[in-house]
Amino acid sequence: MSPDRQPGAARALKFTTEGIPAGNRVHLWENHNAKALISLDIRTMDDAPLRAAEMNLHFPSLKFAQVKGSAQVVERNERFIRQNPTDVIAVFFALEGEAFFYHQGGHESLKPGQAVIYDADRPFMRGFSRGLREMVLTIPRDDYLELSGGRPLLKPQVFDFGEPGAANRHMLALARLVNSTLASPAADPERTEASALELLGLLAAGDRTGTGAGYLATARVYIEDRLADPDLCPAQVAAAVGVSERHLARIFAETGHTPSAYLMERRLQRARTLLADPFEATTAIAAVAARCGFSSQGHFARVFKTRFGTTPLRARKDGLPETP
C-alpha cells in the first residue's frame, strides 16, 4: 500500500498483488481493505493465485475506491462484524462481472450497470465467479443517518442505471462523479465531497430535501447522455430528475444559465469537439448536427456561427481547439 497525497488533494492509496508471492496475496489483500476501505474475510474460488488491485481516495468523510480482482468471495458474518466493526454504509457500483449478494433478508443478483447500497455492519456475502471490476463509496453511518433523517438502512437497496426513475438517475450521477474523481484525483476535493453528499442525501431521504447541487448533477448527466435527442427539453429533464420545471430553472439560475441555454451550450460544445476530431473528418456536417440534437442543418449552422463566430465547415478546416 503506497500513500500519495498532494496539498489540497484527497489522500490516495494504491495496492496490487503484482509481484507478491501467491501464498501471501489474500492476506495482504485483506490487510489493505481493512486499512483503506472495509474489513473483509476474503477467499478465492479456485486454485489460481489471487489477482487484485485497488485505488483508494480518502476525503474527510467519504472514501472512494476502484477495485479489480479475479474470482473471489468476500464476507462479513456476525462474528467477523463483532471483531471488525466498520460503522459505514457502502455503495458498490458494478462495472464488470456478475455477482451474488447474500444478506439477512435474502439475496440479490447484481450485474454491470447496477449499484447496491448497504450497511456494512449487517451480515453479507458477495461472490464474483468470473472476477470483478467495481467502484465503492463508503460514508460513516452517522453521516448517512443525518442525510436520511435518522432512518437506518435495514436492507440493501439496488439501483439500475438503465431503468427510469429519479433514484436510479441520482445513483448514476453519483457513479459518474466517483468515476471521474478516481480518473482525475486532483479535482477540487471539497466540491467533490459536497456533490457526493448531496446525491447521497437525495438517495437516503427519498424526497426533495436537496439544496440543488444533487439535482443539478443528475440533470447534467441526464442531458449529457441525451444530447442526440432533438426532442430533449427542460420539462423532460425536470421530470427525469424528480423536480418541477420551475424548480429546475431555479437550480440552473444559480449557475448563471437557464436549462435551455445549458442544453444548447452542451450541444454546440459537443459539435465543436466532433468537428475538431481528426477521426470524424469524413463525417458529414449534417451527421454531426444530428448527433448533437439538431434536426435542421441550417439552424445548426446559424447558432454555431453565432456562438463561435465561424461556420461549422470553417471550424473543421481551421481545426478549432477545444474549449478549456
Describe it.
The protein has 324 residues and is of the alpha+beta class. The chain has two domains: 2-218, Jelly Rolls (Sandwich); 257-324, Orthogonal Bundle (Arc Repressor Mutant, subunit A), CATH 1.10.10. Helix content is 41%, strand content 23%. It contains twelve helices and 13 strands. The protein has helices spanning 25-36, 78-83, 141-148, 166-183, 189-205, 213-225, 234-241, 245-253, 259-275, 285-291, 297-308, 312-318, and strands at residues 2-4, 11-16, 41-44, 52-58, 63-69, 72-76, 88-96, 99-103, 106-110, 114-119, 124-128, 132-140, 157-160. An eight-stranded antiparallel β-sheet has the order 1-2-4-5-12-7-10-13, with helices on both faces. A five-stranded antiparallel β-sheet has the order 3-6-11-8-9. A hairpin with a 2-residue loop joins strand 8 (99-103) and strand 9. Helix 3 (141-148) crosses helix 5 (189-205) and helix 7 (234-241) packs across helix 8 (245-253).
Topology:
Blueprint: E1 2-4, E2 11-16, H1 25-36, E3 41-44, E4 52-58, E5 63-69, E6 72-76, H2 78-83, E7 88-96, E8 99-103, E9 106-110, E10 114-119, E11 124-128, E12 132-140, H3 141-148, E13 157-160, H4 166-183, H5 189-205, H6 213-225, H7 234-241, H8 245-253, H9 259-275, H10 285-291, H11 297-308, H12 312-318
Antiparallel strand pairs: 1-2, 2-4, 3-6, 4-5, 5-12, 6-11, 7-10, 7-12, 8-9, 8-11, 10-13
